[in-house]
Amino acid sequence: MKKVFEIQEGDTLIQPAWLSGAMYRKGTGGVELTFSSYLKPYMLKLSSMFTRYKLSNILSMKSKYSPRIYEILKCNEFKKQGFIELDVEGLRKLIKADEVRSEEHTSEL
Q1: What is the mean pLDDT of the chain?
Q2: Which of 41, 44, 43, 1 is CA-nearest to residue 21?
Q3: Rounded to whole angstroms, how far apart are CA atoms 75 and 95?
Q4: Which residues contact 73 (CB under 8 A, 6 or more apart)?
Q5: Which are the contacts of 35, defined by CB distance < 8 A and separation ≥ 6?
Q6: Are the C-beta atoms of residues 68 and 62 closer than 8 Å to each other?
Q7: Is residue 57 a contact partner of residue 71, using CB atoms and an 8 Å limit?
Q8: pLDDT in tens, 47-74
Q9: Could you tell me the pTM of the whole model?
């Protein structure tokens, strides 16, 4: 429940955890999850703004960046131009590898 991520909205940075609570009912197999209230506007958009893909396509991937690259390609699959064009820095930013690169430079100093 401590996994925190960032949502940038203009000059505001939101850092919610996915879950604010979980309740397990013994013997029933039932679990009740409570999501952060900060996520409500994003969760409500899930009926129309999402990417669908088979979990089996993701599970065999070895790199931590591969699922995100796959997701980016799936999002663009049905666009009219039939391809996506990104420069290396743009791709790094989309898969959040730009942060890793700056950490590597810091550790070399």
Answers
A1: 78
A2: 1
A3: 14
A4: 84
A5: 18, 19, 20, 43
A6: no
A7: no
A8: 666 677 777 888 888 888 888 888 888 8
A9: 0.46
Q: Could you tell me where the DSSP H helices lie in 32-97?
A: 40-44, 55-59, 66-75, 88-94
Paired sense of beta strands 12-14 and 7-9, if any:
antiparallel
Q: CA-to-CA distance for 38 and 61, rounded, in angstroms?
A: 31
- pLDDT, one tens digit per residue, over 23-47 is 998 989 888 988 888 888 777 766 6
Q: Are 68 and 96 in contact (CB under 8 A)?
A: yes
* 3-class SS of residue 13: strand
DSSP 8-state class, residue 32: E
Residue labelled with tokens 């799936």: 74
Q: Which of 45, 47, 86 is nearest to 68 (CA)?
A: 86
Say yes or no to pLDDT of 93 above 70: yes
